[in-house]
Amino acid sequence: MLAKVEPHKVYKLSDAAALLKEVTFTKFDASVDVDVRLGVDPRKANQMVRGVVTLPHGTGKSVRVLVLCTPDKETEAREAGADYVGLDEFIEKIKGGWTDVDVIITTPNVMAKVGALGRILGPRGLMPNPKTGTVTMEVGKAVKEVKAGKIDFKVDKYGIIHSSIGKVSFTAEQIADNAKEFIGMINKLKPAAAKGTYIISIYLSTTMSCGLQIDPKSVETKL
After folding, report:
1. Which of 53-62, 64-73, 199-208 has the highest mean pLDDT?
2. What is the pLDDT of residue 221?
3. Is 128 helix (H, G, I), strand (E, B) or coil?
4. What whole-number distance in Å separates Cα of residue 76 and Cα of residue 85?
5. Are 113 and 91 in contact (CB under 8 A)?
6. Contact (Cβ atoms closer than 8 angstroms) between residue 43 and residue 25
7. How many other β-carbons are positioned within 10 Å of the β-carbon of residue 70?
8. Coil, helix or strand at residue 200
9. What is the reported pLDDT for 95?
10. Of 93, 95, 63, whose CA–CA distance to 80 is shortest?
11. Which residues contact 122 (CB under 8 A, 6 or more apart)?
């Protein structure tokens, strides 16, 4: 299968999306991942790149959502499709080591309680944040957006943004659409303080495949 991949070749996004499907032979539905290396210094606050994007074809994953809220918001959260809804009992479970969810949504009025879980949730990327829309009074809307394919991302200390943007069972067109939306949002968030080349490299891969380098010009899209 590796014979189909040309070493050091830089692919068009559409070609890479199609090739990925040909070189992935896992028995499970592998995730499609994108890695974007940026010309920023993430140690500087004015060069931090963080945002949210709703992928047009979703992530292909079943997203487990916990809503931490007061009783008056519980029905709204459940009707929107939240997997777990409550407050004190889940806070105690999390203190005991339970983190078997993908996204936690909460309301501003209970953040004092949720904030105490920072040491547990922070390292796992589960801490609710107003910037990503996971601290909101509109819990129903937030749950629906997350279930529909809304993801949040941020640059790591090495200047790389990594995210899953779909599954290998998607069509090549769906993979390319999701990648365009994701990279387009990163472009939109370019910090004014970033100098020189902003997007240095883009690689597309699956859980068990080699990475394919993408020509940034083939990803240009209007948002």
Report:
1. 64-73
2. 52
3. coil
4. 10
5. yes
6. no
7. 11
8. strand
9. 94
10. 63
11. none
Q: If you average pLDDT over each of 1-5, 16-20, 27-31, which comes out highest?
A: 16-20
Tokens describing residue 53: 């994007």
β pairing state of 212-214 and 65-68: unpaired
**pTM confidence score:** 0.78
Spell out where 47-127 has E strands: 50-54, 65-68, 84-86, 103-106
pLDDT digits (tens, 9 = 90+) for 48-61: 999 989 999 999 98
Query: Does residue 87 surpass a pLDDT of 90?
Result: yes
Residue with tokens 């090549």: 172
Residue type, 93: K
Return the pLDDT at 3: 57
Please return the burial class of 197, using the count of CB atoms within 10 Å of its CB with bins 0-12, 13-18 and 19+: exposed
Mapped onto helix, strand or coil, the DSSP state of residue 49 is coil
| Average pLDDT over the chain, rounded to an integer | 91
